[in-house]
Amino acid sequence: MGCSSTTILVAVALLAGADLQRDSFWLPPPASSTAPLVDNAFLLLLGVSAFFFALIVVLGLWFVVRYRRRAGLGPAQSPSHNTALELLWTAIPLGIVALLFYEGFVGYMELRTPPKQAYEIEVVARKWSWLFSYPNGHKDENLHVPVDRPVRLVMRSEDVIHGLFIPAMRVQMDIVPGRYTRTWFRALKPGEYNLVCSQYCGTKHFDMRALVIVHPPGEFENWLADAARAAESLSPVDRGRELYRINGCWSCHSIDGTAGTGPTFKGIYGHEVQFQDGTSAVVDENYIRESILDPQAKVVRGYQPVMNTYRGVLTDEEISALIAFIKSLQ
Amino acid sequence: MTEPSAINYLTYPRGLRSWLLTLDHKRIGVMYLASVALALVLGLIFALLMRTELIAPGRTIMGEDTYNRVFTVHGAVMIFLVVIPAIPAVLGNFCLPLMLGAKDVAFPRLNLASLYLWWIGALFFLVTLAFGGLDTGWTFYTPYSTTTNTNVLAAVTGVFILGFSSIFTALNFIVSIHTLRPPGMTWRRLPLFLWGLYATGLIQVLATPVLGVTLLLLGVERILGLGIFDSALGGDPVLFQHFFWFYAHPAVYIVILPGMGIISEVIPVFSRKPIFGYRFIAYSSVAIALIGFLVWGHHMFVAGQSVLASTIFSALTFAVAIPSAVKVFNWLATMYKGSIELAAPMVYALIFLFLFGIGGLTGLFLGTLSVNVPLHNTHFVVAHFHYVIVGGAVMAMLAGLHYWWPKMFGRMYNQTWARLSALLIFVAFNMTFFPLFIMGGRGLVRRYYDYSVFLESNPEFTFYNQLASVWGYLLVTGFVSMALCLISSLWSGRPAPDNPWGAPGLEWKSSSPPPPENPPPPAQVGDPYDFTEALLPSGT
Q1: Distance from B433 to chain A by nearest Cα, in Å?
Q2: Do A169 and A196 meet the contact criterion of CB atoms below 8 Å apart?
Q3: What is the ipTM of this complex?
Q4: Residue B339 and residue B517: Cα distance in Å, rounded?
Q5: I need a surface site. Which of A63, A111, B264, B470 has the fewest CB within 10 A?
Q6: How many CB pairs (< 8 A) connect A and B?
Q7: Which residues in chain A (294-323) have CB-CB distances under 8 A to chain B?
Q8: How many Å apart are CA A251 and CA B233, to the nearest integer?
Q9: Are A49 and B341 a contacting pair at CB < 8 A?
Q10: Do A94 and A35 sit in the same domain of this protein?
Q11: Using one digit for the tens of pLDDT, what is the confidence trace for B507-522?
Q12: How far does B448 lie from chain A, in Å, by closest CA?
C-alpha cells in the first residue's frame, strides 16, 4: 500500500459526501487540534468500506442475475480452488488493514500523549454530575478552558465507572473509581460544546452532562480570577447555593418542589418526613447533617438508598452553608 | 411423492413423556427451536418497548429506571438465551449426527441435560424479571453491578447455568466429530457446517468457564463483601472487564462461526457448485476461533488500559478480520459460473453477505485505535454489533432454518411468502439500524434513556430515532411473517421430498422427516460438495 492508494481511498471518501476540513455528515464539526487526525482515519475507513461493500453487492447481484438457473443448463466448469487467487485476495486486505492499523496507531499516540506544558484541571465524576477544579482552588460544574492551549484532565470517580466524552473534541476516556485516568485536548475555537457521560452509570446516566466553555484568548484568566473572588465573599445562603450547584446535589434534589431521585429541598426544612422503617422525624439541622454524612441512615419513604456519603468531601463550614441554603427554600 | 411416513421421529413414540425424556438429538433440536423462539419473542418485546420509548425525546412510555431494566433484559435475553444457543443447539443438534451418518451425538444424556439446564437458566431470568429486574446492562460492569439494588444474583446464576448448557452441547459436538465420522469422511471431507460447529465448540469449552468463574466472583463479592472488582473494597473494576471480555469477545465467534458454516452449505447447494477454497474456509474457522481469544482488549481502548496493550489488541483485531474477509470472497467465487436458484435459503444467504459485510467493515472502524475513541460507547457500536449478530448470525440461522425445514418437519413452505418476508426483513433491518451509525458517529451515547442533550447541535436525531422505531416495528412484522410462513407449512405445506434442494450432503439421504432411528451411513462416504449426482431438477 503506497501513498497513491491512500489518495485514491480518500478520494472515494470525498465522493461519499465528506469534506475533510468542515462539518461532515458523519462526525460533529471538529473543534480540537487532534480531531483532524481522527477524522482523516475515519474517512480513509469510509473509503475502504464503501469500496469493498460495493464490490460485494455488485458481484453478488451480478452473479445471481448472470448465472441464474435456467432449464437444461447446468453450472459451467470452473475451478474449486485457486491458490494464487486466494493468496492474492488475502494479501490485498492484509496490506489495507496494516495501513489502517498504522493510521489508527499514530492518531491514538497523539490522543493519549498530553504535551508537557498542558494546563491541568482536575475532574471528579459522580452519580450524576461533574466537578472541575482549577489550580487556584476554584471549583465549577462546567469545564472552562482557554482557547488554543493544551488542557490536561486528571480524572477520578467517587462511585462507579463514568466516561468523559466530548464529541466535538474527539475525546473520550473512562473514569474508574480507585485510580486516576488522564486525557487531554487543545480547543481550536471559542464556544460551548457538549460534555457527556459515556459509560453507563444508572438512573441519570443520560442526563450527566456539563458544558465545555472555550474562552477567547486572554479571557479565561479573567473569568477564573473573578469566579474565585466571587466565591469568597458570599453570604452563607449564597455559599450554600454555590455548593448545591458544584457538588451536583441538583441532579437528585430539586429546589422547585418536583420529586427527583431524592426528595426536593423546597420546603423540606421544618417539615415532618416518613422514613422507610415506618418512623418519622422533623427535618432539622441535625437530620440534614446526618443525611449528608450518613445518607443511608434514614431514607425518606418512596426513595431508593442510592446516595453516597459526603464525609471527607464537605467541611463543617460547607455543611452549615448548605443547611442555611436549604432553610431558605420555603 | 408420498405423504410423510406415518412413523417418523416426530410421531413416534407418542406422548409428552416421550418428548421430555427423549435422548434423540432430533427431538432435542426441535425442543430447543421452540424454546429459543419463545425467548426470542421475549427479547423482541423488550426491543419494541425500547424503540417506543426512543420514538420521541423525553419521557414517552416509561421512566428512566424502567428503561435501564428494559435494555438490560433485551441484551441479556438475546445474547445468553437466543443467539448463543440458536445455531448449535437447534440446527447443530438436529443436523450434526445426520450429517455424520451417526445414530446420535456421542453423549445423548448430556445432550438432554443441556436442554434442561437451558430451561433452568431461563427460569432464573424470569425470576430476575419478576423480582427486582436487572439494570446493569448485559455486561454486568463492576462496581455498578456490585452496588445496584436490582436482582444481580438471580441473573448471574441464570447465566452461570446457561454456560454449562452451552459447554455440554459443545463437548458433545467435539467428541462426536472426533469419534463418529463414518468411513471415508476424513477431516478434509467434513461438511463445512461441522467445521464451523467444531471451531465453535472449542471456544465454548475454553471460554465459557471463564465467564462462570467471573460471575461466581461477582456473586461472592456481592454476598460476602470480598474485594475483587469493587474499588471501594480494594478490588479492581477493570479486572472484571478483562475477565468478562475474555469470554464475551470469543462469544461473538460462538455466534458467528456456525452461521458461516451454514452459509458455506447453502451457497454451494443453490449454486450447484462445489464450495470454492474448501480448505481455506475449514481451517480459517479454527484460526478465527483461536485468534479470537487474543482480541478481547479492543473493548477497552478507552477503559484506562495501557497504550501498549491497546496497540497489540488493535493489531490482533485486524489480523482476525482477514480470514472473515477471505471467506466472503470464497463464497462469491462459489457463485461464479454457477447455476443459481434464488430459493428462500439462498435469499437469506445473500442478505447475510450484504449485512455481515457492513457489520465486518464497520468493525474495522472500531478496531482502529484513534477512530475508536470518539465512537466507543456510542450508537455506532450498537449498530455495528446488530449488523454482525442479527445481520450475520440471525440471517445465517434463518438461511439454515429454511434450508433444513423440509427435512426437520417434512413439509415445504410457500417460497413466495418466505422470500417476501426475507425482503421485508432486509429492508426494515437496514432502515432500523443504519440511522444508528449516523447518530453514533455524531456522538449519541448508547444506553441513553433520552437524547435531548444532543438535540441542540443535532436536531435531526429525533427524525432518525423515529425512522429506527417505525422500521423496527416493520422488522418485527417481517419476523412474524417469516415465522407464520414456516409454521403454516406444518398444516398446509405440500409434503417434502427427501432431497428437495438436490443437495449432496448425507443428511438428505434419510426420509423427510427422518425415522426415529437415523439411517446407517453408506459404506463409503464421498465428497460432501460433489454435485454430479445431484443435478436433477429439484422436487421430482
Answers
A1: 15
A2: no
A3: 0.93
A4: 35
A5: B470
A6: 268
A7: 304-306
A8: 26
A9: no
A10: yes
A11: 999 999 999 999 888 8
A12: 5
